[in-house]
Design brief:
The protein is an alpha/beta fold. The protein has two domains: 11-40 and 304-405, Aspartate Aminotransferase, domain 1 (Alpha-Beta Complex), CATH 3.90.1150; 54-293, Aspartate Aminotransferase, domain 2, CATH 3.40.640.10. It has 14 helices and 13 strands. Strands 2-8-7-6-5-3-4 form a seven-stranded mixed sheet, sandwiched between helices. Helix 5 (132-140) links the parallel strand 3 (123-128) and strand 4. The longest helix is centred in the C-terminal third of the chain and has 18 residues, at 388-405. The model is unreliable at 412-423 (pLDDT under 50).
């Protein structure tokens, strides 16, 4: 009896998530063969020794007996109320626990908020480069991701006039990722205010992905989008994964503000979808109140001398020292750098070939730029989570490979200097 192929759904035809795709699978194969891979493709703090605050673990232990059963589909009240208090402290008004939905990470909530909103063919404005889950989730839910450019030469900050020209009668929402993944850009207040007015005039839902909200450097100012959007609906998405180094807890939240009364049916649809998945991880929700109300240790990590600050400084120094690499300025936020390769030096450079060669020959895993829905092929993303010594080794290997592309002999004791301070 012959076997017939079992085909996947056609809905997945245009869905991509290369951060955990072919290259990551190959990295796992190499590790099984005994090779040590430096994996910089994913922002996973725990993999680099950055622990969740102990107080959060204790909060879960103390409430273990309260986590046996299902909770309300929106989440436990103490967690939702803690999110409300955080929003109020930031100047967001009119939000109660009823407008807060707790999910199994922001990833689940992105899917829920889009599924409740989109009909087939509806359009969503998504940044390019983007965090590719946004584009994938739009596609999976029958929509069309329309990418607005955030160009390297502009510091990866979007141009509101260009975004305005992309709006059509089918446009339903505007996605803003600030601080940005993958670029580390932190958007200026004036740009965010203009985007808020644009969304209000066009009746667009604003989805503001703020998972890196407290990861800012050297005086960069994070502006919560919900403080600027009033005449349309704004959904703020954040969680424990990054700032609190708790990726494995899978706790995120979506907070709705602005024109919530006009969105009553839409919010009821999200409530329905939340009910269908029963609830999110109950035990980890007990860490939310302690996380948001306790000591914000992330500030130590992003200040001069802190782990993330110094790693970012090392990246900036390594790129500045390289003949081949380009970065307009040090990332202002998040835990990544989106690094360009000078095609004047390497005209035939291809980011996917480079990422594969870097993995196979130098045992470093990065994410090629095309993974983030950009039209150019000369960028790659790395995370800034490793310590400075590891990053210096990484950039030595990168420069060796790029030098080989250019026909240069391998470097000997290639040590990348770290500048005393960022320009």
């Amino acid at each position: 009896m012959s076997e017939s192929a079992i085909r996947p759904s056609e809905s997945l035809r245009h869905v991509r998530y290369e951060i955990r795709g072919r290259l990551a699978h190959r990295a796992h194969e190499l590790e099984r063969q005994g090779y040590e891979i430096i994996s910089l493709n994913i922002g996973n703090p725990g993999a680099f020794g950055l622990r969740t605050p102990e107080t959060m673990r204790l909060a879960m232990i103390e409430n273990l007996a309260e986590a046996d059963g299902y909770c309300h589909q929106k989440g436990i009240f103490p967690a939702r109320e803690a999110v409300v208090m955080q929003q109020q402290a930031r100047g967001v008004t009119g939000v109660t626990a009823e407008e807060v939905f707790i999910g199994n990470g922001v990833s689940e909530l992105i899917n829920l908020v889009l599924r409740a909103l989109l009909d087939d063919g509806d359009e969503v404005l998504v940044p390019s480069p983007d965090y590719p889950l946004w584009s994938a989730a739009v596609t999976l839910n029958g929509g069309r991701a329309v990418h607005y450019p955030c160009r390297p030469e502009s510091g990866f900050v979007p141009d509101p006039e260009q975004i305005a020209r992309l709006i059509t009668p089918r446009t339903r929402a505007l996605v803003i990722i600030n601080p940005n993944n993958p670029t580390g850009a932190v958007y200026p207040r004036a740009v965010l205010e203009t985007l808020a007015r644009l969304a209000e005039r066009s009746g667009l839902v604003v989805f503001s992905d703020e998972i890196y909200d407290q990861m800012v450097y050297d005086g960069a100012e994070f502006i919560p989008m919900a403080t600027l959007v009033h005449e349309t609906l704004c959904a703020t998405l954040s969680g424990l994964s990054k700032v609190y180094r708790a990726c494995g807890y899978r706790v995120g939240w979506a907070v709705f503000s602005g024109q919530t009364r006009a969105a009553a049916e839409y919010l009821a649809a999200i409530d329905l979808l939340s009910s269908l998945r029963l609830c999110s991880n109950v035990l980890a929700q007990w860490a939310v109140q302690t996380a948001l109300g306790g000591y914000q240790s992330i500030r130590d990590l992003v200040s001069p001398g802190g782990r993330l600050y110094e790693s970012r400084r090392t990246i900036h120094g390594a790129v500045s020292h390289s003949r081949f690499l380009r970065l307009k300025e040090a990332p202002q936020g998040a835990m990544y750098a989106f690094i360009g390769v000078d095609t004047a030096e390497l005209p035939a450079f291809d980011d996917q070939r480079f990422a594969l060669d870097l993995l196979e020959q130098k045992h470093v895993l990065v994410a090629p730029g095309v993974s983030f829905n950009v039209p150019y092929r000369n960028h790659f993303r790395i995370t800034s989570l490793p310590d400075s010594a590891t990053l210096q080794e990484v950039f030595a290997r990168i420069d060796d490979l790029l030098g080989a592309y250019a026909g240069m002999p391998p470097a000997v004791n290639n040590v990348v200097p770290v500048p005393k301070r960022l320009a």
